[in-house]
Amino acid sequence: MGLIHIDLFTTLDGVAQAPGGPEEDTANDFAFGGWQAPLIDEVVGEQIDSGMAGMDALLLGRRTYDIFASYWPHQNGKIAELFNRIPKYVASRQSPELEWEGSTLLGPDTEAELRELREKHQNVHVIGSLDFVQTLFAERMFDQLNLWVYPILLGHGKRVFADGVVPTNLRLVEPVVASPKGAVMQRYALVEGTPGVGKMVEIDQAENQ
């Protein structure tokens, strides 16, 4: 059974809108498109490359798909070769024309579609696609969250957890690493159950016994 990975780049205050470029997403007069570029360094690049190891499908929301489809088919290099080669699946409430080779529109039953994708592929990555990601969070329809947190505050913009989430347990799957420019990568696996509660005094007593 394959895994659904969510890959997101976010500021410290949770803004994940348009990290890649000024024209990526200007909705609501967002003026900081491309905020990620000044904070990229070799460590982040290596983390992104290693995270793509084994990727055998992309799952994208409509807006991110349009951005990718207008850019990657015209590029060269390791990432372009991978993205152009593997299957692309698009989640949309409409019926867009998908011109990027290897693209398929998902049906309306998201849960059933993801179940089929897990049977076809080992590592399906959702990159960006903030609107679609809200559905995945709300329905717990993902297996791993890969989150890069950058040391800036933007104050407004589309956020990672914009619509809230259901109470969910996550498990850190590898040590947290900070890059020279302060980006912190965190990889979490989805865990069954809901978060537990307790009193700190009880925890202190248990640790001292």
From TrEMBL:
Which Pfam family is one of this chain's hits? RibD_C
Give the GO terms filed under biological process for this record. riboflavin biosynthetic process
Residue stretches making up the Bacterial bifunctional deaminase-reductase C-terminal domain: 5-174
Transmembrane region(s): none
- Superkingdom of this protein's organism: Bacteria
The record ties this protein, via InterPro entries, to:
DHFR-like_dom_sf, RibDG_C
Q: Which GO terms describe its molecular function?
A: 5-amino-6-(5-phosphoribosylamino)uracil reductase activity
This chain belongs to which protein, by name? Deaminase
The record lists the organism as: Paenarthrobacter nitroguajacolicus (Arthrobacter nitroguajacolicus)
